[in-house]
Amino acid sequence: MMGGTLLLLGRAGCELHYMTVANGSCGTACLDSDEIVAIRRAESAKAAALFGATCHQPLVDDIMIYNTPELAARLGAVVRRVDPQIVLVPSGQDYMEDHTNTSRLMVTATFCRAMRNFQTDPPRPPVRSDVALYHALPWGLSDQLRRPIQPDFFVDISAVLDRKLAALACHQSQKLWLDESQGLDSYLTSAEQMSARVGEMSGGFEHAEGWQRHNHLGFGPEDYDPLREMLRDGATSSNTGENQ
After folding, report:
1. Which architecture does CATH list for 3-237?
2. Which residues touch 46 (CB under 8 Å, ≥6 apart)?
3. CA of 88: how far to CAs of 84, 134, 152, 186, in Å?
4. Tens digits of per-residue pLDDT, 136-170?
5. Which own/partner pairs from 189-194 qualify as long-range (CB within 8 Å, at least 24 positions apart)?
6. d(CA 55, CA 20)
7. Is 224 in contact with 216 (CB distance < 8 Å)?
Protein backbone atom coordinates (compact mmCIF):
# COMPACT_ATOMS: atom_id res chain seq x y z
CA MET A 1 0.00 0.00 0.00
CA MET A 2 3.04 2.33 0.18
CA GLY A 3 5.81 0.80 -1.95
CA GLY A 4 5.33 3.11 -4.93
CA THR A 5 5.53 6.20 -2.75
CA LEU A 6 8.68 4.87 -1.11
CA LEU A 7 10.28 4.35 -4.53
CA LEU A 8 9.40 7.89 -5.58
CA LEU A 9 10.90 9.29 -2.38
CA GLY A 10 14.09 7.42 -3.19
CA ARG A 11 14.10 8.99 -6.65
CA ALA A 12 13.67 12.40 -5.00
CA GLY A 13 16.88 11.81 -3.05
CA CYS A 14 15.59 10.59 0.29
CA GLU A 15 17.50 8.09 2.41
CA LEU A 16 15.11 5.17 2.79
CA HIS A 17 14.53 2.85 5.74
CA TYR A 18 12.37 -0.27 5.58
CA MET A 19 11.01 -2.27 8.50
CA THR A 20 8.47 -4.96 9.26
CA VAL A 21 7.77 -5.16 12.98
CA ALA A 22 6.74 -8.84 12.96
CA ASN A 23 8.92 -11.62 11.56
CA GLY A 24 6.41 -13.69 9.59
CA SER A 25 6.46 -16.62 12.01
CA CYS A 26 2.80 -17.51 11.41
CA GLY A 27 2.80 -16.94 7.66
CA THR A 28 2.90 -20.55 6.57
CA ALA A 29 0.75 -23.66 6.44
CA CYS A 30 3.59 -26.16 6.18
CA LEU A 31 6.89 -24.87 7.64
CA ASP A 32 8.20 -24.63 11.19
CA SER A 33 8.47 -21.17 12.72
CA ASP A 34 12.26 -20.98 12.48
CA GLU A 35 12.17 -21.95 8.80
CA ILE A 36 9.59 -19.38 7.74
CA VAL A 37 11.24 -16.63 9.81
CA ALA A 38 14.56 -17.22 8.03
CA ILE A 39 12.81 -17.19 4.65
CA ARG A 40 10.93 -13.99 5.44
CA ARG A 41 14.09 -12.28 6.67
CA ALA A 42 15.86 -13.05 3.39
CA GLU A 43 12.87 -11.89 1.35
CA SER A 44 12.65 -8.59 3.24
CA ALA A 45 16.36 -7.97 2.75
CA LYS A 46 16.00 -8.63 -0.99
CA ALA A 47 13.05 -6.24 -1.29
CA ALA A 48 14.83 -3.54 0.74
CA ALA A 49 17.86 -3.85 -1.55
CA LEU A 50 15.61 -3.31 -4.56
CA PHE A 51 14.36 -0.10 -2.94
CA GLY A 52 17.89 0.93 -2.05
CA ALA A 53 16.75 1.05 1.59
CA THR A 54 18.34 0.17 4.91
CA CYS A 55 16.55 -2.92 6.23
CA HIS A 56 15.73 -2.99 9.95
CA GLN A 57 15.13 -6.38 11.50
CA PRO A 58 11.72 -7.35 12.94
CA LEU A 59 11.24 -7.37 16.70
CA VAL A 60 8.47 -9.86 17.50
CA ASP A 61 6.58 -12.89 16.19
CA ASP A 62 3.40 -12.56 14.15
CA ILE A 63 0.28 -11.76 16.19
CA MET A 64 2.57 -10.48 18.97
CA ILE A 65 2.41 -6.81 17.99
CA TYR A 66 0.69 -5.25 20.97
CA ASN A 67 0.69 -1.64 22.11
CA THR A 68 2.99 -2.22 25.08
CA PRO A 69 5.57 0.07 26.71
CA GLU A 70 8.30 -2.48 25.96
CA LEU A 71 7.66 -2.58 22.20
CA ALA A 72 7.17 1.19 22.04
CA ALA A 73 10.58 1.60 23.69
CA ARG A 74 12.24 -0.70 21.13
CA LEU A 75 10.63 1.11 18.21
CA GLY A 76 11.48 4.44 19.81
CA ALA A 77 15.15 3.48 19.65
CA VAL A 78 14.82 2.88 15.90
CA VAL A 79 13.12 6.23 15.39
CA ARG A 80 15.84 8.07 17.32
CA ARG A 81 18.60 6.27 15.43
CA VAL A 82 17.11 7.10 12.02
CA ASP A 83 15.79 10.60 12.98
CA PRO A 84 13.34 10.68 10.05
CA GLN A 85 11.57 13.62 8.43
CA ILE A 86 8.84 11.39 6.97
CA VAL A 87 7.31 8.28 8.55
CA LEU A 88 5.02 6.09 6.45
CA VAL A 89 2.87 3.77 8.55
CA PRO A 90 -0.04 1.38 7.94
CA SER A 91 -3.59 2.56 8.26
CA GLY A 92 -4.97 2.66 11.78
CA GLN A 93 -8.18 1.23 10.28
CA ASP A 94 -6.84 -1.90 8.61
CA TYR A 95 -8.52 -5.31 8.75
CA MET A 96 -5.51 -6.91 10.49
CA GLU A 97 -4.60 -6.17 14.12
CA ASP A 98 -0.85 -6.47 13.53
CA HIS A 99 -1.20 -3.63 11.02
CA THR A 100 -3.31 -1.35 13.21
CA ASN A 101 -1.14 -1.96 16.28
CA THR A 102 1.99 -1.21 14.24
CA SER A 103 0.41 2.08 13.23
CA ARG A 104 -0.36 3.04 16.83
CA LEU A 105 3.07 2.00 18.09
CA MET A 106 4.92 3.99 15.45
CA VAL A 107 2.85 7.07 16.26
CA THR A 108 3.86 6.70 19.92
CA ALA A 109 7.51 5.94 19.15
CA THR A 110 7.75 8.98 16.88
CA PHE A 111 5.85 11.27 19.25
CA CYS A 112 8.29 10.40 22.06
CA ARG A 113 11.43 10.98 19.97
CA ALA A 114 12.27 14.26 21.78
CA MET A 115 11.16 13.32 25.29
CA ARG A 116 14.21 13.32 27.56
CA ASN A 117 12.62 11.01 30.11
CA PHE A 118 11.20 8.50 27.64
CA GLN A 119 13.65 5.60 27.85
CA THR A 120 14.20 3.65 24.64
CA ASP A 121 15.54 0.11 24.34
CA PRO A 122 18.45 0.27 23.75
CA PRO A 123 18.92 3.73 25.27
CA ARG A 124 19.34 6.52 22.73
CA PRO A 125 19.41 10.29 23.22
CA PRO A 126 16.33 12.29 22.18
CA VAL A 127 16.12 13.97 18.77
CA ARG A 128 14.20 17.17 18.11
CA SER A 129 13.76 17.29 14.35
CA ASP A 130 10.37 18.03 12.82
CA VAL A 131 8.68 14.94 11.40
CA ALA A 132 5.43 14.20 9.57
CA LEU A 133 3.55 10.89 9.72
CA TYR A 134 1.37 9.58 6.92
CA HIS A 135 -1.03 6.64 7.05
CA ALA A 136 -1.40 4.44 3.99
CA LEU A 137 -4.80 3.22 2.89
CA PRO A 138 -5.91 -0.08 4.44
CA TRP A 139 -5.76 -3.25 2.38
CA GLY A 140 -9.14 -3.50 0.67
CA LEU A 141 -9.60 0.31 0.91
CA SER A 142 -12.09 -0.01 3.77
CA ASP A 143 -11.98 -0.12 7.56
CA GLN A 144 -12.70 -3.04 9.88
CA LEU A 145 -16.44 -2.50 9.41
CA ARG A 146 -16.13 -2.40 5.58
CA ARG A 147 -16.65 1.37 5.37
CA PRO A 148 -14.66 3.02 2.54
CA ILE A 149 -11.65 5.11 3.57
CA GLN A 150 -11.06 8.37 1.71
CA PRO A 151 -7.44 9.62 1.61
CA ASP A 152 -6.36 13.24 2.03
CA PHE A 153 -4.31 13.05 -1.14
CA PHE A 154 -3.02 10.69 -3.82
CA VAL A 155 0.45 9.94 -5.17
CA ASP A 156 0.83 8.93 -8.80
CA ILE A 157 2.83 5.66 -8.84
CA SER A 158 2.27 4.80 -12.51
CA ALA A 159 5.93 5.33 -13.40
CA VAL A 160 7.18 2.97 -10.67
CA LEU A 161 4.42 0.35 -10.65
CA ASP A 162 6.66 -2.30 -12.25
CA ARG A 163 9.36 -1.79 -9.61
CA LYS A 164 6.77 -1.87 -6.83
CA LEU A 165 5.47 -5.22 -8.11
CA ALA A 166 9.04 -6.50 -8.44
CA ALA A 167 9.66 -5.65 -4.78
CA LEU A 168 6.44 -7.39 -3.77
CA ALA A 169 7.48 -10.42 -5.80
CA CYS A 170 10.52 -10.77 -3.52
CA HIS A 171 8.08 -11.91 -0.82
CA GLN A 172 7.35 -15.26 -2.47
CA SER A 173 6.38 -17.03 0.75
CA GLN A 174 3.85 -14.27 1.47
CA LYS A 175 2.19 -14.95 -1.88
CA LEU A 176 1.80 -18.65 -1.13
CA TRP A 177 0.44 -17.96 2.36
CA LEU A 178 -2.06 -15.31 1.27
CA ASP A 179 -3.29 -17.44 -1.62
CA GLU A 180 -3.93 -20.36 0.73
CA SER A 181 -5.10 -18.66 3.91
CA GLN A 182 -7.02 -15.59 2.77
CA GLY A 183 -8.02 -16.35 -0.82
CA LEU A 184 -6.34 -13.25 -2.19
CA ASP A 185 -5.37 -14.90 -5.48
CA SER A 186 -2.00 -13.63 -6.62
CA TYR A 187 -1.20 -10.76 -4.30
CA LEU A 188 0.67 -9.12 -7.18
CA THR A 189 -2.51 -9.05 -9.23
CA SER A 190 -4.45 -7.84 -6.19
CA ALA A 191 -1.93 -5.05 -5.56
CA GLU A 192 -2.02 -3.90 -9.19
CA GLN A 193 -5.81 -3.92 -9.25
CA MET A 194 -5.98 -1.98 -5.99
CA SER A 195 -3.56 0.68 -7.22
CA ALA A 196 -5.75 1.04 -10.31
CA ARG A 197 -8.82 1.50 -8.08
CA VAL A 198 -7.00 4.18 -6.10
CA GLY A 199 -6.01 5.78 -9.41
CA GLU A 200 -9.67 5.96 -10.35
CA MET A 201 -10.44 7.55 -6.96
CA SER A 202 -7.82 10.23 -7.69
CA GLY A 203 -9.66 11.31 -10.82
CA GLY A 204 -6.48 11.63 -12.84
CA PHE A 205 -3.86 8.94 -12.24
CA GLU A 206 -3.73 5.48 -13.79
CA HIS A 207 -2.19 3.91 -10.67
CA ALA A 208 -1.97 5.63 -7.31
CA GLU A 209 -1.49 5.25 -3.58
CA GLY A 210 -3.57 7.22 -1.11
CA TRP A 211 -2.44 8.89 2.11
CA GLN A 212 -3.88 10.42 5.24
CA ARG A 213 -1.62 12.86 7.08
CA HIS A 214 -1.49 12.41 10.85
CA ASN A 215 -2.28 15.36 13.10
CA HIS A 216 0.80 17.60 13.28
CA LEU A 217 0.58 18.29 17.03
CA GLY A 218 3.69 17.00 18.78
CA PHE A 219 5.48 16.30 15.50
CA GLY A 220 6.06 19.58 13.67
CA PRO A 221 4.50 22.81 12.38
CA GLU A 222 0.98 22.65 10.98
CA ASP A 223 2.24 23.48 7.48
CA TYR A 224 5.08 20.92 7.58
CA ASP A 225 4.09 18.48 4.82
CA PRO A 226 7.34 17.08 3.36
CA LEU A 227 5.81 14.13 1.51
CA ARG A 228 3.67 16.33 -0.70
CA GLU A 229 6.47 18.87 -1.05
CA MET A 230 8.92 16.25 -2.31
CA LEU A 231 6.40 14.61 -4.64
CA ARG A 232 4.64 17.81 -5.64
CA ASP A 233 4.37 17.01 -9.37
CA GLY A 234 2.65 13.69 -8.70
CA ALA A 235 0.46 14.47 -5.68
CA THR A 236 -3.24 15.30 -6.01
CA SER A 237 -5.65 16.42 -3.31
CA SER A 238 -8.71 14.25 -2.84
CA ASN A 239 -10.82 17.37 -2.42
CA THR A 240 -9.81 19.40 -5.45
CA GLY A 241 -8.44 16.86 -7.92
CA GLU A 242 -5.66 19.37 -8.61
CA ASN A 243 -1.91 19.03 -8.21
CA GLN A 244 -0.67 20.36 -4.89
Report:
1. 3-Layer(aba) Sandwich (3.40)
2. 170
3. 10, 5, 14, 25
4. 999 999 999 999 999 999 999 999 999 999 999 99
5. 191/164, 191/165, 192/161, 192/165, 194/1, 194/139, 194/140, 194/141
6. 9
7. yes
